[in-house]
C-alpha cells in the first residue's frame, strides 16, 4: 500500500475508469453518512502533471455524483478560484498537496463523525486495540496546528507533514486518506473511520483499554499489506451494488 510514482500518464480508458471509481466512492461515502452537506472533496491526479486533478464540482451532493460530473482543475492556476464550480478549499488543500507530493495521486478528505471526534482530542493518537486500529499503527501523520479554514497555511503545512503516510489526521478538522488508486484511498478512508469508531466507542465505556504491544501492532499492520488486492475487491463489490441500484453513477 505504499505510494507509487505518477510518471506515467493515464490512458483515456483508465481516466474513464477513475471517474467511475470516484463516483462510486462518493456515493458509498454518502451511504455511510461520512459526507457533510456539500463540503469535502475527493481528488485524483489524472495527468503526468501533478497540477491537473479531477475533483467534485462545488455544490454537487456526494449521493448524486456521476462519473461525468467530475471537473478537471489546474492547481497551478489561481484563476481557477474564480470558477463557480470550484470550491476554494478543494483548490487550496488538494492543490497544494498534489503540487508538493506528486505520488499522492488520490486524496479523499472527509469530516466523518468518529475520525473527527478523534481529531478533537488533546491526544490524537490512535492506539492499536483491535485489527482495524492496528492497521494504522505508525501510518498516521497528525497535524496539530489548526488555525482556521484551510485556504493558505494549512494547505502548505499539510503538504510537508505527510511523510509518506496514507492518513493525515487533521487536528480539530477531519482527515485525509492518500493513496495511488481510488480503490486504495477509499479502503484506507473506510477502515480509518471504522478504527476511530471502535476506539471512541471503547473510550466511551470509561473502562481501561487493552492496548496491543507495539510488536503485535506493527506485525498486524504489515499483515494488512498482504491483503493489498482487497481494496480493489472492496470497491468492486460496492460497484456491483451500485450497478444494480443506481447505475447512473457510472454515466
Ligand atoms: Zn475539511
Ligand atoms: Zn478537501
For the record, give the distance between the C-alpha atoms at the N and C termini, rounded to a whole number: 29 Å
Percent range of helical residues = 40-55%
User: Which strand order spans the largest sheet, edge to edge or round the barrel?
Assistant: 3-2-1-4-7-6-5
Total tally of structural domains: 1
Whole-number radius of gyration?
Answer: 17 Å
**What is the chain-wise order of helices and strands?**
HEEEHEHHEHEEHHH
Count of DSSP-assigned helices:
8
Bound molecules: zinc ion
Given as residue ranges, the uncertain stretches (5+ residues, pLDDT < 50) are 1-5
The CATH topology label is: L-fuculose-1-phosphate Aldolase
Strand fraction band?
5-15%
Could you tell me the number of beta strands?
A: 7
Instruction: Write down the overall geometry.
Output: globular
The largest sheet, given as strand count, sense and whether it forms a barrel, is:
7 strands, mixed
